[in-house]
UniProtKB/TrEMBL annotation:
One GO term (biological process): microtubule-based movement
A GO-annotated cellular component: axonemal dynein complex
PANTHER family cross-referenced by the UniProt entry: CYTOPLASMIC DYNEIN 1 HEAVY CHAIN 1 (PTHR46532:SF13), MALE FERTILITY FACTOR KL5 (PTHR46532)
Organism: Haliaeetus albicilla
One family name in Pfam for this protein: DHC_N1
Highest taxon listed in the record's lineage: Eukaryota
Protein name: DYH5 protein
GO MF annotation, one: dynein intermediate chain binding
Span of domain Dynein heavy chain tail: 5-167
Length: 169
């Protein structure tokens, strides 16, 4: 019973820490008004990395041993643990999926940032088709909020590129 109690305390600390990570990942991001679309890809890459690290830790032999001991002791903390484990898996899958879809836009980021307005416009139809494909096929990225954020960043990049073009000319 003493060992079980100590292990439950450890797992409760982990649960608290994991909940904090999940809460922070769901909070609104504070971003500059003129941020471009490559920042969106970087955000999801960083999120994927942190959730994958967390998953690796959860799947480590040390954690598995503690969880199996608590299972044998029929600990009540396991219900919360299993729920959080599932939430971390969902968050990791979401980040991985979003990175995969956003990488399809990566080829447009260079022309958006460096091209003249005329050259940039040649890329817009393909870019919009790709955004549409993401919206129609991504299980996670197809929300109004995510699409609005992405389109805003694309527009910001186009405006910044046009401003630079006008200032150079």
């Amino acid at each position: 019973p003493e060992v079980t109690e100590k292990l439950e305390e450890v797992v409760m600390i982990w649960i608290k820490q994991i909940r904090q990570v999940l809460v922070e990942s769901e909070q609104m991001r504070r971003e500059a008004d003129d941020i471009g679309p490559s920042a969106e890809l970087e955000h999801w890459k960083a999120r994927m990395s942190s959730f994958n690290s967390l998953l690796d830790e959860i799947k480590s032999s040390r954690v598995k041993k503690i969880i199996s001991i608590l299972q044998a002791a029929r600990s009540k903390t396991l219900k919360q643990w299993k729920e959080l484990d599932g939430n971390i898996t969902i968050a990791a899958n979401e980040a991985k999926d979003n990175v995969r879809y956003l990488y399809t836009l990566d080829k447009f980021f260079g022309p958006l940032a460096k091209a003249s307005p005329v050259t940039m416009m040649e890329h817009v139809p393909s870019l919009m088709n790709t955004v549409c494909m993401i919206y129609c096929t991504s299980p996670y990225y197809n929300t109004s909020e995510r699409m609005t954020s992405l389109l805003l960043k694309i527009t910001n990049q186009m405006i910044n590129t046009c401003k630079m073009y006008l200032c150079e000319g």
